[in-house]
Design goal:
With about 250 residues, the protein is α/β, with parallel strands linked by helices. Helices cover about 40% and strands about 20% of the residues.
Length: about 250
Amino acid sequence: TLRSVLAQTREDFEVLVVDDGSTDRTASRVEEIAGDTRVHLLRQANAGVAAARNAGIAAARGRYVSFLDSDDLWLPGYLETMGAALDTRPDAGLAFTDAWVWDEGAGRFGRETIMVTGNPPAIVPDDPRELLALLIAGNFVYTSATVRRSVLAEVGGFNGDVSPAEDWEFWLRIVARGHRAIRPAAVLAVYRDRGASLSSDQGALRAAAKRVLETAAAEYGLDEELLSRVRQRLAEIDATPTSPAVA
């Protein structure tokens, strides 16, 4: 994962690795590349994904903040492409990309990208309200997105109360505040499917999805039409307890 970041075609970046109380070799592996002054290790007691990302956000100094899970990869043009996309669209607060799926067990790439399962729109709506309606139906934004730091200062960080769907709630909150989202055409990341991750626990995802929607209904100031969409989605989740939830 770190090698994929250090291999970027754009070199003006900082890497903030948050060691969230790990029991593996995270810290020592980061220290092995201590000669690269762009890499910084942050340590904290185990507090979960949301807290780890928020620690990274708090320490970030760049104009844009990009998120990358510890087992995923960026293709070399990720930072250059995402930065250029946001530079040309100052009205956009969020840029997201799709990812190829690497099946760790089978040792091969899948035919479909990770966002296919979320049924993303062919064209991202320019109207934040229209995009919000689509996101209420389900999350199609892959976790490795890039957000303006000014937007982070406005909307706050990740909400640990909705784990493991903190990503979905975060994108919803950004768009609900009226910020546009853009998606460069290229696939810029690799999602490594290891089978035993949090995202494979469908029971936890279903419960988290309900918490996300309940948070949206209670805190976002949605109009009646959007609230109706939230209630409909909650009813669908309750009616299909064995189906995969969106997160």
